[in-house]
Design a protein that fits this description.
Chain A: Belongs to the complex I 24 kDa subunit family. The complex is a heterodimer of chains A (223) and B (748). Chain A is an alpha/beta fold. Chain A contains 8 helices and 5 strands. The N and C termini of chain B lie far apart (86 Å). The chains are: A alpha/beta (223), B alpha/beta (748). The structure holds iron/sulfur cluster and FE2/S2 (inorganic) cluster (2 copies).
Amino acid sequence: MLARLAASRFLEIRQVFRQVKKILSHYPSNYKQSAVIPLLDLAQQQHGGWLPVSAMNASCNILFNKIIEVAPIRVYEVATFYSMFNRSKVGKYHLLVCGTTPCMIRGAREIEDALLKHLGVKRNEVTKDGLFSVGETECMGCCVNAPMITVADYSNGSEGYTYNYYEDITPKRVVEIVELLRKGEKLPPGTQNPGRIKSGPEGGNTTLLSEPKPPPCRDLDAC
Amino acid sequence: MGLGLLASKALKPTASRLLSSQNPRSLLFLSRTVTSTPELQKPEQAAQAQPEPTPDLPPRTPLAGARVHFPNPDDAIEVFVDGYPVKIPKGMTVLQACEVAGVDIPRFCYHSRLSIAGNCRMCLVEVEKSPKPVASCAMPALPGMKIKTDTPIAKKAREGVMEFLLMNHPLDCPICDQGGECDLQDQSMAFGSDRGRFTEMKRSVVDKNLGPLVKTVMTRCIQCTRCVRFATEVAGVQDLGMLGRGSGEEIGTYVEKLMTSELSGNVIDICPVGALTSKPFAFKARNWELKGTETIDVTDAVGSNIRIDSRGPEVMRIIPRLNEDINEEWISDKTRFCYDGLKRQRLNDPMIRGADGRFKPVSWRDALAVVAEIAHQVKPEEIVGVAGQLSDAESMMALKDFLNKLGSNNVWCEKNGMFHDADLRSGYLMNTSISDLEKADVFLLVGTQPRVEAAMVNARIRKTVRATHAKVGYIGPPADFNYDHEHLGTGPQTLKEIAEGRHSFSSALSNAKNPVIIVGAGLFNRKDKDAIFSAVEAIAKSAKAVRPDWNGLNVLLLSAGQAAALDLGLVPESENCLESAKFVYLMGADDVNLENIPKDAFVVYQGHHGDQGVYRANVVLPAAAFSEKEGTYENTEGCTQQTVPAVPTVGDARDDWKIIRALSEVAGVRLPYDTLTAIRSRIKTVAPNLLHVDEREPATFSTSLKPQSNQELSSEPFGTAIENFYMTDSITRASKIMAQCSALLLKK
Ligand code: SF4
Ligand code: FES
Ligand code: FES
C-alpha cells in the first residue's frame, strides 16, 4: 500500500522525469550509475525529506533498473552509506546542528538543547505537527562562523527545496529562527550576528583595508 | 664522549664538520652511531664490499602451491622479501610476492579469486623507505622493493589491526560453528595480542535471512566484503551489499531478500569468520571430529572435486577441493547440500514384491535366485538394462557384460536416451575443456541452460564474459542467466538460420577467434537430434570452431554416468526395446520413461534410494551410493576421476558391480572378474582412458565431421533439460534441504 502510494506519488509528478533527464545528462553514458546520488537526492526531496523503503523500491524499479541499470542492493548501499539520506521520517524543516569540534567549542550543545527543549522533541524525532525535526551533522565547512545549523527545507517539494546555513547562532536566536520558519517567513541565511558581514570580523574589517601592495620583487626596475 | 671523538676520526669529512659545529644534538647523534662494527660507520664502503645482501636463509618454497607464471619474461622484476630475493612478474602485489617467497601474510579480505578490496588491513607489512606500513594485498610490487614481514613495525601493525577487528567481535568461539577452522581465530592466535583495551559496549547486528542454506550470525562479521564480492563477481547475483557506514556497517540484502544463487554455499567457505556458516550443518559437529575423504561429486556431469567430511557412518558435510581445471575452489549448492539425501529413503535389504503388491525383505541368495530365474525365462532381445545417471564405469561395464552374456545388447545410460553415436568421442564430450572456456570469445549455447545443468561450467562462462566481454548467444526456452547474453531464438529454426548465415549472430561467430558452441545433452532425446547435430556442425565449420589448435564444438552432458557410459559403448541396439521388454534391469535408473515399460515386464531395481524406479520394481537390490564406494567417473570434458568410500554402506547394500557379478554367477553366466582391478583391466580393453585417473583424455581430433543427415529439423522449440536445479537425481530428490531450496528459491 505504502509502496504503491509512494510509487504513484513518485510517478505523478511528471516534472520529475524532466529533472531526471537533466541529472542523467550530466554523466557519460557508460557511467550512468554515478547518477545514483543525485537521483536519490531528488527522490528524497520529492518525498518530504526521507527515503522510505517504498520510495527506494520505486526509485530502484522505475528509475535505476530501467534507466541506469543498477541493482537495488547497490542503491540501498548508497542510501545507507550517506548520512544525508534520511531513512526515517523528518519534519518539513529538518534542522541539523553541527556538532563537530569548532562548533562544539562555540556552544553547539547548548544550541541543540535549546532547540530540543523549545520543540519538545528528542533528537531525530519529528514534532507532532510534522513541521520540525532536529538532527546532528558533521562539519559543514563554515567553522569560522561557528556555531551553525543547517535547515533543510522540504516544505515546497523539490522545486522550492533549500538547504540553508544559519551561522553565529545563539540559543535565543535559534528559537527565533524556528518561530520565523513556522510562520513561513523567509529569513536571510548566513551569519545571524548583525555586527558581522559574511565571515568578516565583528565591527567591520580590520585588515586588508586598502589595495594590497604588490610584492617588491614584481617591481622589476627596483632590482 | 671520547669514544665519539675517536670514532669521528674515521668518519667522512661531512661528519667531522658536523662535529665541529657546536650543535649538541649532532654530538649526541654521533655518540649514538658508535658501534664496534666498522662497516656500520662507513655505510658506503660497506655497501661496496657487499653489493647484495646475500641471504643466509635457506631457499624457500612458495606457499600453498603459489605458482609464478611469467606472461612476458621481460616483465620479471626482483623484490626482496625479508632479504630473500624473488623474481616475480610485473603487476603482482606485495602479498603475492611474499607468497612466492614462502612467507604467509595474514589476511582477511584478500582472496585470490576476487577483486582486491584492501579493507581489513591485516596484511600490513613494512616496506623499506615507506613511511607507514603498507597493505600488501593492494600494493603492487615494484622493482627492488625491500619487503619486511617480520619486523617489530609489521608485528605491531598486525597486532593493532587484530585488536580493532576483535573490538566488535563477540568472541563467541565456543558456540560458533567456524571454531577450529576460523581465520580470525587462527590469526589472532598467531598475530594478535593476548588482551584488548576495549572496554565499551560491543555493537551487535541483526542476523539476516539469506535462505535455507546459509546461516548468518552477523555480529561476528568483520566487514571484509568477501561475500559481497563473491556474490557480485563469481555468482553473478547482485544480492549482497554492505549497508551503512562506520560502526553501523553491516552485510545485508535488499530489504529481506534471499540470496538466490546456485553457488551461494561458497560464501560459507570464503567468510573468514563464523558470520556465514552452513545452516544444515549448524551445531552438528566440530570440524576436528570429522574424517575428510577426498572424492568427487556425481550430482552433475562436471565432477567437482569435493571432500566428504564424515563422522562415523554419517556424512556430515561436503566441501570443495581445489581443482583449477574443473571447479576451481567452488561447488554448487546441490553438490554441497545434497548429502542429507544420503541418509533418507535408503534401500537396506533385498526385497521382492509379493502378490499383494508389498515388498518383503529377503536374503540376497533368494533375491538373486529369483532374478536369475526370470532372466532365463525371457527371450534375449526382451532383456533391457538401463544404467542410472549416477552409475560408475565399473558397474556399467559389468551390466553391459552381463546383459551381453544373456544375449541382449539393449543397455544404455538413462540421460543418454537413444543417443547411439558413441563412436566418436568428440561427439559427446566438452572438447574445449572447462578451463579452456576462458579462452573463448564467443559462445553459442544450443538448447542448454548451463546455470542449472552444470553450475560450475556456467561459472566459467561467467568468468570469461566478465573478464573479456565475450559474447553469448543462446537458443532455447527463456532461461535464467547471470551474465549478458543474447536470446537468439527458441528452437531449431534459429539454428538453421545461423547455419545458413542468415542470422546476425553468424557474423559474430565467424569473426570470433575462439568460438565455442555448446550443445545441451537434453537434445539427445529429440527425434530430430541428428539434424540438429548436423546443423551445429555446419555452424562449427563456417565459424572454424574445429581447428587443430582449437576445438570449440562441445556437448554439455547432464549427469555423472553419461560420458563413461558412452565410452563403454552403452548404447541401445533398437530404439523401441523398452516398449517390448519383458525383463528390465534398472541399475539406479529412475528417470527412464517408466510408463513405457509394459505391464507384464519383470523389473529389477538395483539402487540406493527408494525413488521412482522402486515403484515399478518387482525386485529391489540395495546398492551403495557414491559416498560409499570406489568408482570411476568421467566428467563432461572427458576427465576420469574416482570416488573414494567415505562412509560404510547402509544395511545389507553392496557395490553395484559386485551385485551384478554375483547375479551373473547365479544366472550361470559368470563374469570373469572378482576384484576392482580385474574389472578395470576389462575396462581397459574397451575404454583405456577410463583408467587414466585425474587426467583429461581429449577426444581424438577428427576433421571429418559427421556426414550431413537428411533428417528434417522439426519446428518444435527446444525444451528445458532440467526443471528443478535442486532435484535431479535420486539422492537430491531424497534430500530435505534440496526440497526446502526448491520451495523457497525457485518460487517465482
Ligand atoms: S559476512 Fe563474512 S565474508 Fe561477509 S563481510 Fe562479513 S566476515 Fe566478510
Ligand atoms: S565545525 Fe561546525 S561547521 Fe565546521
Ligand atoms: S588482506 Fe590486505 S587489506 Fe585485507
